[in-house]
Fold this protein.
Amino acid sequence: MAKRTPTSLKDGKKTNLKSSFNALVYIPRFFKEIWNVNKKIFLLSTFCRLIGALLPVIILWIGKLIIDEIIHQTSIEITDYTQLWTYVGIEFALVILSDLISRAISLTDGLLGDEYNIATSVTIIKKTNQINISLLEDAEFYDKLERARTQTTGRVGLMSNVLGQAQTAISIATLVAGLIYFEPYLIILLVLSIIPSFINEVRFSQQQYSLARSWTSERRELDYLRFIGANDKTAKEIKLFGLTDFIVNRFKNLSQEYYELNKTLAIKRTALGFVFNVLGTLSYYGAYVFIIYRVLSGVITLGELTFLSGSFNRLTKSLQDFFSRFTRISESALYLKDYFDFIDISILSKTKEDVPLPKHIKQGFEFKNVHFSYPDSDHEILKGINFTLKAGEKMAFVGQNGAGKTTLTKLLLRFYEPTSGYILLDGININRFNKAEYQEFFGVIFQDFFRYEFTVKENIAIGNIDELENQTKIETAAELSLADAVIAELKHGYNQQLGKRFSNGQELSGGQWQKVALARAYMKNAEVMILDEPTSALDAKAESDVFGRFIGLTEGKTSIIISHRFSTVRQADRILVLEHGKVLEIGTHKELMQNKTLYSELFSLQAEGYQ
Ligand SMILES: Nc1ncnc2c1ncn2[C@@H]1O[C@H](COP(=O)(O)OP(=O)(O)OP(=O)(O)O)[C@@H](O)[C@H]1O
């Protein structure tokens, strides 16, 4: 398979050091979110870290006092160990406290992380729901969504890192103060030893992020291949068509490329990391020799030697930690940027008006010269559509595959805006109404309705989730859609788990699923009903029954039915025939049969098939 260059690399959208640092501006907003999640735990965690930051220097200082006291006691004749044992006792208590503090920090970080995780997942689900359908079908948007969704653990790690960083910074400040007090020159040695490894860390982590980011869409493809390669829904076709090798090879080629790039980077990072660390160790031993020399010359005590070498050692480690954590923070902050970019996606519609929606439709809908192309496509799907759907009318949309029937309903539902032309409701452009309120007006069952792996009861109540506990309403809806007979056969009736994903789940046939989904339409007393091929999997008898009921029940209601079955279509008040994105004809069954164009031709063809 030909090698590909990741899309974002092709576009030259590489991230650089500057963007890593710029991303740090998101940290205050991030902490504001964490603070809002649980103020008490956040304060507790901060307090523990403050104590944890001061403990190292105190413990080292007590160590110095102990050694100086031992030397003092061995040099005098009348010994008194009270002071010595007191120091040992204090050190012991401090070590215990230190352990307690570090456990408390892990605990609070874990709890806060979990709560933050829940909160962001909810935010992402809600935001996805607010976003225009047109964006949901956009590949670039999916990349953003994937980065926002999958980097949750990264964000929790970032929280610990930033808090840990503050703790290390305080710790470093106290240790540096100790060094300055005794041997200020050691500071220069310390700084020199740490700079190369810092630069190394920053460079590599930025490259790592750049690589991961530029591969977002390829990772999405890898996930997809993993999904179709090992999934109960695709297993039949994969086996039957012998697709395993095809999928495995495609997966391997793509992942191998990423693996190689990542490997090169990781090896370089490790090798250079080692070299720079040796520099750090060298400087430590340089400092150690210097301190020993100072003790031998009698300038400082043995206790001070322990304190200084301990402080220096700890400082080297803390500084290394500090810098490597700093690069990790700026790296994760870039992921944070992805998350905030996602939740900041503007959801403003083109018009800001909020014209009140009529309680009931008086005149109906009117399509006026509506043209439409899907975003980023120059193929015009609808080419100047004009028709009216009167209040209370039942209209059927008919046409060959791809004629634009579903697209027409998507415009009516305001999933998309017409490229030009208008859709009016009682004379008012539908884009002037509040979108959410307007969409509440409709009860819709799509041809690709979703099979929720919930219970039957929940699957039906999805049509009007506020009525989840209204068993009578759910049962009535099931009777009307003929789902009641299906449910009667299920072991747990309305509480039967559907699908195979969860334990005790029961899979349904295509037609049975359709009956359950159809019941959703009856859960809401919607002004306008749209059924987009909801009966394609039903047998002829069931379909006729379902429509008989539907027509009876929606008496006086405005509705649209999309169907390829003319026995159903002919029951509509009027039929709109679409061809290549244009209205070819519109009228009653009788009128269209007399026209002797596409409708009568297709009707006769289907009628022959049934003979
Ligand atoms: N999200 C989309 N982005 C781009 N093109 C699309 C999208 N959805 C549909 N199309 C295209 O729009 C055209 C009309 O599709 P539509 O689903 O409206 O047809 P239809 O009449 O409902 O067909 P069918 O009877 O097969 O359901 C098709 O050519 C299809 O490829």
